[in-house]
Design a protein that fits this description.
By secondary structure, this protein is of the alpha/beta class. About 45% of the residues lie in helices and about 25% in strands. It has ten helices and seven strands. The chain has a seven-stranded mixed sheet, with helices on both faces. α1 runs parallel beside α2 and α1 crosses α8. The two termini are about 30 Å apart.
């Protein structure tokens, strides 16, 4: 991972929420919400909360007495999340998942949707999650499966590779879709002290009303934008258009429907 992979600023948070959340994040947020609802969790720490899609799913399902602490490294993402949910049970706080500002054994559960891939030192972040969990507490997190199992991300990456053949933007393949090795994740969790580690692949569908929506989502609503603009800032509209054309060529010019696949990991302290 390179430094710009972790930068979610400028207009990215708004576009991320508008386009990417309904495109790929909502079904997995609902899944995590249901998992924690079944567990009867009363105190939850969320890391890498982004614009709050999982936070909202938890708030809709957990008990009135539950408490949710939603954190993210990027203050612009949290600022947007705050505008989407006002709930007395939720506390928003900027925090680094690798150095959590919380006391030991504070939470029943720690949850992280599609954030682990951005942690430079995963074992350190896993140790921090374990430290703040109560004995017997559970760590839930999701990662994307390899990019070939996620249609729109794969098509966009190929299209931009053709646009910049000498220096193809590889953010999507490198970071969001570059950490699906379950055995490696299991080894890192074990090194952090977790036990009873399980992994479940979950297939879903990614749908949009036109090819342009996923193109905007990926090219302008993720740090892929930073990679495109680092090559030639003036070509961002062209990159988005090329991505939309590539999606249309494969899925048609009307409503589009592609595969997405993620892996949900659960580990016990």
């Amino acid at each position: 991972m390179v430094a710009i992979d972790r930068v979610f600023a400028g207009s990215i948070p708004e576009l991320y929420e508008q386009y990417l959340v309904p495109l790929i994040f909502e079904p997995y947020a609902l899944d995590l919400g249901k998992r924690l609802q079944r567990s009867g969790t009363e105190s939850v720490l969320e890391t890498a909360a982004g614009t709050g899609v999982v936070t909202r799913a938890l708030a809709a399902r957990l008990a009135p007495t539950a408490r949710i602490t939603a954190t993210d490294l990027n203050e612009p993402m949290l600022n947007h999340a705050r505008t989407r949910l006002q709930d007395a049970r939720v506390t928003w706080q900027q925090a680094d998942a690798q150095a959590l500002p919380f006391e030991d054994q504070k939470f029943d559960a720690v949850v992280c949707q599609f954030g682990v891939m951005f942690f430079p030192d995963k074992v350190r972040a896993f140790k921090e999650a374990r430290r703040v969990l109560k004995p017997g507490g559970r760590y839930y997190f999701s990662v994307w499966d390899k990019i070939s199992e996620n249609d729109f991300a794969d098509v966009v990456t190929q299209a931009l590779g053709e646009m910049f053949p000498n220096d193809p933007p590889r953010f999507l393949a490198r970071t969001p879709h570059g950490h699906s090795d379950v055995e490696r994740l299991r080894a890192e969790l074990t090194a952090a002290g977790f036990t009873d580690i399980s992994a479940e692949g979950i297939d879903a569908r990614s749908k949009a009303s036109s090819p342009r929506e996923p193109a905007i989502a990926y090219c302008e609503g993720t740090p892929l934008r930073n990679e495109i603009e680092a090559r030639d800032k003036s070509r961002l509209p062209e990159a988005t258009a090329r991505a939309a054309d590539a999606i249309a060529q494969r899925f048609g010019n009307g409503p589009v429907d592609g595969r997405i696949r993620a892996i949900v990991i659960t580990a016990v302290k």
